[in-house]
Amino acid sequence: MTRGYRRYTVGARERLCLRMGFCRMTRTASIEGQSIGERRLDGAKKSMVRVVAPAIAALLVVGLAACGNSEKPAAAGGSGGAADLGTLKVLQVTPNDVSAVALAATFKLNMWEGTGLKVETVLGQPSTEAAALTRGDMDLSTRGASSQLANMAKGVPAKLMGAVRLPTSMYLVSSTKSGINDPEDLRKGGINFGISSFGSSSDEVVKAVVTHYALSQDQYKVTALGDIKGILAAFKRGDIDAFAWSAGDAFAMEGEGLGKVLGNAEQWQQPSVSVAYAVSDKAIKERPEALKKFFEVYYSAVEKLRADPKIALDIYVNDWKYPQAVGEKAVKDELPTLSTDGQIPAENLKNLGATVSESFEIKDLDATKYWDYWKNLE
C-alpha cells in the first residue's frame, strides 16, 4: 500500500443517496433489494425492464447501454438466419464515458442483428460486480481492470478476456477554489482528492500523483464517493479539491468554469490496463461461441468508430447530452485509447498485477493466471 495513504469514506446517508440516484442522461429503473418482475421506463412503448438478479441490490437496468432515449428494448440482437447463441448479460459500472462508447455503438448501429446473439446491459454499482459474476447473474462486466483483478485474486470465478483500453484516458482536475492551477502546485499539499472507491482507476491515479510529487500523509487525504455522480456533486460543493476521471466529465467541469484540467494521468502512471472485460468462468465454460461473437462485434464497433468518429460524437452529444465542445474533445483525445483487438501486452499485465498487489495487499499476485484472451476461445 502506498505509504501515508489516508482513506475517508462517505457516511451511510450519502451512500444511500448514491445507490438510489439515477444514472445521468440515461433512462433507468432503480432496483433496491426488491423483487420486481417487469416495469416500464418512462412509459416507453414495449420498452420493458427485466430484472435478472433481484437479490443483488442497486442494479440498474439500462435501456441499450445508456444510448439516450432509445425506444428499443434492453435486449438487442437476433438470429437473422444465424445459429441461436442466446443472450449474454453485460454489467456496466460507468455507462457514459469512452469505455462504454463502443458498446453503445453496437446498439446504435444495430450490429447485433443477424448475429444470433442477444445482448442485455445492466448498470450496477462497483460493489455488485463480484456477486453478479460469482452467481452467474452476469456473464461479463466492464470496469477498472485493477478492481476486477483484485476481485479475481480474492476468489471471484472470472477471467480478464479483453482490454477496453490500455492507456488511461483519465484526466486530473483541480477545483478553481483550490488554488491549484498547475501540476507543480500539487507539491504544496493540503489537497482532498475525490475518488469513486478504493482500488478503482480513479484511486490508482491519485496514488500515482501523490507518489510522483512525494506528498506526505499530512499533505493530502482521499475521499471515496461511490461513483462519478458523487464525485461531481462533492466537487461542485467544494468538498473536494481534485479528482481524476475521463475527458467528458473532466472537461465539462473546466467548461463550466469550476475546474482546471491539469493533464492526462498517463504522465504519472506506468503502462498498465485501464479498463477491461471480465468474463465469468461459467460463461467461458458454457458459452464460448457466444462470447467469441460478442467480442468480434464489439471490437468491430471500435474499428467503425475509429474510421468514423462522428458516430462517437453523436453518442456523446445527442445520446449522452454532453456539450458539443466537450464531446469533440473527448472523441479526439479518448477514442484513440480504445483497444481494437483486446490484447494485453505482457508488460502491461505485469504492471497491473504489481499495482493490485500493492493496493490490495495481495502477496505474490500473478496476473497471468487471470488472463484468458478471447481469441483463444474454442
Textual characterization of the structure:
The chain has 378 residues and is of the alpha/beta class. It folds into two domains: 7-12 and 169-267, D-Maltodextrin-Binding Protein, domain 2, CATH 3.40.190.10; 24-167 and 273-376, D-Maltodextrin-Binding Protein, domain 2, CATH 3.40.190. The chain is 34% helix and 21% strand. The chain has twelve helices and 16 strands. The strands form three sheets. Strands 2, 5, 6, 7, 8, 9, 10 and 16 form an eight-stranded mixed sheet that branches. Strands 1-13-12-14-11-15 form a six-stranded mixed sheet, sandwiched between helices. Strand 7 (86-92), helix 2 and strand 8 form a beta-alpha-beta unit. It holds the Pfam family NMT1.
List the domain count as a whole number.
Answer: 2
Give me the CATH architecture of the largest domain, please: 3-Layer(aba) Sandwich
Biggest β-sheet strands, sense, barrel:
8 strands, mixed
Q: What's the average pLDDT?
A: 81
Separation of termini?
A: 39 Å
Structural class: alpha/beta
Give the proportion of residues in helices.
Answer: 25-40%
Order of helices and strands: EHEEEEEEHEHEHEEEHEHEHEEHHHHH
Number of helical stretches of at least 4 residues: 12
CATH topology of the largest domain: D-Maltodextrin-Binding Protein, domain 2
What does the radius of gyration come to?
A: 20 Å
Overall outline: globular
Keywords: Membrane, Signal, Transmembrane, Transmembrane helix
Main location: periplasm
Transmembrane segments: 48-66
Domain SsuA/THI5-like: 114-310
